[in-house]
Amino acid sequence: MLSLWERVLLLLLVLLLGCWGELPSQPPVSRHRGMNYVAWNPEQFALLPFPDELDLLKTLGVQDVAVPVTWYQAHAQATEIAPDLQRSLPDGDLIRILRRLRAAGWRISLRPLVDLKGGHWRGEIAFSRESDWKRWFESYQRFLVHYAQIAAREGVALFSVGTELERTVTREQQWREVIARVREVFPGALTYSANWDGYERVPFWNALDYVGIDAYFELNVPSEPTVEALVRAWRPWEERLDGFATRLQKPILFTEAGLRSVAGASQRPWDWQRSAPISLQEQANYYEALFRVFWSKPWLGGIYIWAWIPGLGGPKDSTYTPTGKPAAQVLARWYRRGD
Q: For a FRET experiment, which of 31, 112, 171, 289 has its CA 20 to 30 Å from that of 227?
């Protein structure tokens, strides 16, 4: 029989081993109050990160900044992914941005994205031959590991292993190998950003720390709806997400959320090409309804608004950015609240 002292030592050992075993997979504790900080061309790169804009983000209560970085492939069946010298953020500029953000006290997320040069959606990437799948995943893994190494060196807290690659997620084993390789070089939390209508089809959530959803859920509302109408329209999606979260038992991030400031955008928030009159009020109402429905959910790990875009914003701007629009004040009111 163990003595009292031996039993105490054994209990301490079990507790310590339990803690050590949990640490690598635990996501950050506080809810993410996030913003995607985006640039798509060299002129915008030169503005990153603009000190005045960072100060403004802090006044809005933003605590987490996601930095997307994009490489390209020629078309949906191309197997090589590479930086575009005219559109991809150079590593030196990325490192400068990450260091400035970290020095200012931000928690940082790095989001490597793959886009198609022809303008089609990355969710169309797929192959009919096994050899092409193999080559694509090899190229994709090199791309991810490159940025995971930068993220590890620069103190990034959250790293995304993919975004809206809808037709690739059926390749579960290859995805798990990619995730395992990223974990070898990056010690922080990992997520993947599923499309709003594809998150239930991702088979490898248990290999990640957060479920990520680009939350452009289509809503059955008229053009320029009230907050109350938007809240009602969110209910079916709310119930579906509640059930999904209960089954999965993992925190969910809205890795992208928002819409353009144009009339009717709430119907299809993902539609970045919609032609309609500017409606600053619809954008503000959408933000208010989004937070009313989801901010108190115990499963919500946080929200990252899409997007803060250097040089854009103001009452005549029709893009996704809330800069200089009523939506920014709605965001500030919610982000300044406690969890």
A: 31
Over its C-alpha atoms, the chain yields an Rg (Å, rounded) of 21
Higher pLDDT pick, 4 / 201: 201
CB 149 within 8 A of CB 182: no
Q: Which residues pair with 111 in a beta bridge?
A: 68
What's the rounded Cα separation, in Å, for the pair 101 and 107?
8
Helix (H, G, I), strand (E, B) or coil at 157: coil
Residue 327 has pLDDT above 90, yes or no: yes
What is the phi/psi pair of residue 193, to 5°?
-100, 100
Structure tokens at 159: 């790293």
Closest listed residue to residue 83, CA positions, set 112, 118, 124, 119 = 112
Could you tell me how many helices (H) and strands (E) the chain has, helices first?
9, 8
Pairing of strands 64-73, 107-116: parallel
- Cβ within 8 Å of residue 237, ≥6 positions away: 217
Tokens coding 256: 């992208």
| 208-236: pLDDT as tens digits | 999 999 999 999 999 999 999 999 999 99
Q: 64 pairs with which residues across the strands? A: 34, 107
Rounded distance between C-alpha atoms, residue 109 and residue 194, angstroms? 16
Determine whether 112 is exposed, middle or buried from the number of CB atoms within 10 Å of its CB (0-12, 13-18, 19+). Answer: buried
Which residues, at least 6 apart from 117, have a Cβ–Cβ distance to it below 8 Å?
72, 73, 74, 75, 84
Q: What is the pLDDT of residues 81-120, one digit of tens each?
A: 999 988 999 999 899 999 999 999 999 999 999 999 988 9
- Rounded CA-CA distance 13/59 in Å is 45
Helix, strand or coil, per DSSP, at residue 301: strand
pTM: 0.90
Q: Which two tokens stand for residue 233?
A: 């329209």
Nearest to 54 by CA among 45, 63, 46, 44: 63
- Kindly indicate the confidence band of residue 10, based on its pLDDT and cuts at 50, 70 and 90: very low
Domains of the chain: 30-335 (3.20.20.80)
- Determine how β-strand 189-195 pairs with β-strand 107-116: unpaired
